[in-house]
Design goal:
Elements (H helix, E strand, L loop, with lengths): L1 H20 L4 H18 L6 H14 L3 H19 L6 E6 L4 E11 L8 E3 H7 L8 E5 L7 H28 L5 E9 L3 E5 L4 E5 L14 E12 L2 E7 L3 H11 L1 H4 L4 E8 L3 E7 L7 H6 L4 H9 L4 E6 L4 H8 L7 E5 L4 E6 L4 H5 L4 H10 L2 E6 H7 L16 E2 L21
Parallel strand pairs: 2-3, 11-12, 14-15
Antiparallel strand pairs: 1-2, 2-4, 5-6, 5-8, 6-7, 8-9, 10-11, 12-16, 13-14
Helix pairs in contact: 1-2, 1-3, 2-3, 2-6, 4-6, 7-10, 11-13
Length: 432
């Protein structure tokens, strides 16, 4: 007979392990292991198979949920089942010992002079009959383990265990992803709706809102994309993760992945300005004079930056050299346009840039994009004037020696003069 019981227990554990390996949810796994547990204690309250301990160990290894959390959940489940199904309001404690295979229920009562609630209190006289050493305010524990504790309590216990396992899983996922805010991850598009794209990040689905999607991209299920984690929230339904394809941080992280000099700190990304899906500008700097920061980002024959362009579905990227001198930095940021002079107004944090007449449209860019991105990249307001207009205004040339600006940067698309674009010489401001 004992041999048959052992066979049934072994078969049940084998089923459990096979289900775990097929990636069932923690809810289903918890239900299975609790069923095994109830079946064990139903036949004999002092009989508990070692296979339950093995199942808990496997669950901890495969799913990352602590065995202690599961045991605590089982104990809480059995307390709940005892109170509900046996109409007991007394304070009880479950002694669950996986080492020797025992489970006992103890009622806890406080020793008092006068008993008002016999479910929670016991008189000094009755307590001293159990043990003469008991005094007032001591707690007496008396075993009240029911003989028919199995099938009736199973459903209630299973629900509590399921909830605890779910909470533990949510806590683990939240702890894992809260540390990955402002980081990049590779996800797989699961499904779409008019408002969101749902991206699988392994243990959880992240939300890609419509305003964080690149306008030049169309997402299909099973597409593999890189996303930037913008926010991790703890909600009643579990952790909620928001990701983006348009955030400037995505571009920065992609450069950190593709450029070893940025990853090890030799080259530093100073600022990023991005209009997702169209064009971006990035400023870089290195304290090592022997390292070319722009060349490092471009890579041999442009391979490094091209890999990023491909990931962003053809988004144009300008790489410029950063400078602490706003004159030089603003001039570099307006590349590929040539700059004749930069007049700085420190008080208003504004600059007036003089460019050759034939380069005016190039400096402005299509729909003002080049000037707009340069302003955002540098943090300075930029007013662009042609050489002719500057001479008429008497601001060019200045008496001091003109600087020879370094426009040796990378730009992955040739600009074309936009003859139809009308520029009114107003101050371009970028509101961040």
């Amino acid at each position: 007979m004992s041999h048959l019981k052992g066979d049934r227990r072994l078969l049940a554990v084998r089923v459990l392990m096979s289900k775990i390996n097929t990636c069932l949810s923690e809810k289903q796994i918890a239900a299975l292991e609790l069923i095994i547990f109830i079946r064990e204690i139903k036949g004999d309250i002092n009989l508990m198979s070692s296979e339950l301990l093995d199942a808990l160990t496997l669950l901890e290894k495969e799913k990352g949920i602590s065995r202690d959390v599961i045991i605590e959940a089982i104990e809480a489940a059995l307390v709940s089942a005892y109170r509900r199904n046996f109409n007991q309001a007394q304070n009880v404690r479950i002694d669950l010992n996986l080492g020797n295979g025992t489970m006992r229920v103890f009622a806890r009562k406080e020793v008092v002079d006068e008993v008002f609630d016999p479910r929670l209190e016991i008189s000094v006289e009755d307590a001293q009959k159990i043990n003469p050493n008991y005094q007032v305010e001591d707690v007496v524990e008396m075993e009240v383990t029911p003989k028919d504790f199995g099938r009736i309590a199973a459903q209630t216990a299973k629900q509590v265990v399921t909830q605890r396992v779910r909470e533990a899983e949510r806590g683990i996922i939240y702890s894992e992803f809260i540390d990955r805010e402002e980081d990049i991850m590779t996800g797989i598009v699961q499904r779409t709706d008019p408002k969101f794209i749902y991206v699988s990040l392994g243990k959880i689905e992240a939300i890609l809102p419509a305003n964080e999607q690149m306008p030049n991209e169309r997402y299909q299920p099973h597409d593999r994309i890189k996303v930037f984690i913008t926010k991790v929230e703890k909600t009643t339904k579990g952790p909620q993760i928001f990701v983006s394809r348009t955030h400037p941080g995505l571009l920065k992280r992609l450069f950190e992945i593709e450029v070893p000099e940025i990853y090890d700190g030799t080259v530093e990304i100073k600022s990023v300005a991005r209009e997702a899906g169209d064009r971006s500008k990035i400023s870089v700097h290195s304290d090592n004079e022997e390292v070319d920061p722009v060349g490092s980002c471009v890579g041999p024959k442009g391979t490094r930056v091209q890999a990023i362009v491909n990931e962003l579905k053809g988004e144009k990227i300008d790489i410029v050299k950063w400078s602490s001198d706003p004159v030089v930095f603003v001039a570099n940021a307006l590349s590929p346009s040539k700059v004749l002079d930069v007049i700085v107004n420190e008080e208003d944090k504004a600059t007036t840039v003089v460019v050759p007449d034939y380069q005016l449209s190039l400096a402005i860019g299509k729909r003002g994009q080049n000037a707009r991105l340069a302003a955002k990249l540098t943090g300075w307001k930029i007013d662009i004037k042609s050489e002719t207009d500057a001479r008429e205004a008497g601001i060019y040339p200045r008496d001091e020696k003109l600087l020879n600006f370094d426009n040796d940067d990378y730009e992955n698309e040739e600009y074309e003069n936009d003859a139809d674009f009308e520029f009114n010489d107003e101050l371009l401001e970028e509101k961040e």
